[in-house]
Backbone:
């Protein structure tokens, strides 16, 4: 059921698919579909969860490629996210309208996907920070950095999904440069601090 619904949502968008269409494609009755998922929104949330798990697995594979430099691992991950958005355009915008989380049962799928992405980025950033010799207080900031990075990625991907006249790689590269130039320095232990005002 989820497989059939996912294919229909990907092809026609959420609004272009009815529960009758999904029941027919699944080879079951519509009442049975409602018995399993309660509503079209509930079924979409289940589809979003499966898609999010697939994206998470792909991101995990990238994060574990030790032969790649940390910045290259991150770039490959960003590239995967933008490709996912391209292939699941309408569904992404339903999950993350204007870069924010959707509400209701659909939002639960968006939250799960967001949290999984943040967990993977935390692992990647933690590994990178340790490789660069950071420890103690510096490592305590890594999880916050990963969640900030995740939010920025979702916002940038959602904006690009509404402006697809721009090449995908240009949007992904802009995000990479904006975030890595800052995160890369932080993971090196380099901090910006404001200048102290002159003492009277």
Residues:
């Amino acid at each position: 059921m989820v497989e059939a619904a996912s294919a229909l949502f990907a092809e026609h968008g959420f609004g272009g698919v009815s529960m009758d269409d999904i029941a027919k494609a699944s080879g079951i009755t519509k009442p049975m579909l409602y018995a399993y998922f309660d509503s079209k929104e509930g079924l979409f949330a289940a589809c979003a969860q499966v898609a999010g798990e697939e994206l998470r697995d792909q991101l995990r594979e990238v994060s574990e490629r030790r032969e790649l430099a940390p910045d290259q691992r991150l770039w490959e991950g960003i590239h995967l996210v933008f490709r996912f958005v391209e292939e699941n355009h309408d569904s992404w915008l339903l999950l993350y309208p204007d870069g924010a989380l959707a509400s209701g049962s659909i939002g639960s799928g968006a939250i799960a996907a967001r949290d999984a992405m943040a967990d993977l980025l935390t692992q990647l950033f933690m590994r990178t920070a340790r490789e660069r010799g950071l420890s103690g207080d510096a490592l305590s900031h890594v999880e916050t950095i990963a969640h900030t990075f995740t939010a920025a990625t979702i916002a940038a991907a959602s904006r690009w999904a509404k402006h697809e006249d721009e090449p995908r790689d240009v949007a992904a590269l802009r995000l990479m440069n904006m975030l890595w130039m800052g995160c890369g320095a932080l993971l090196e232990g380099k901090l910006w601090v404001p200048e102290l005002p002159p003492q009277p």
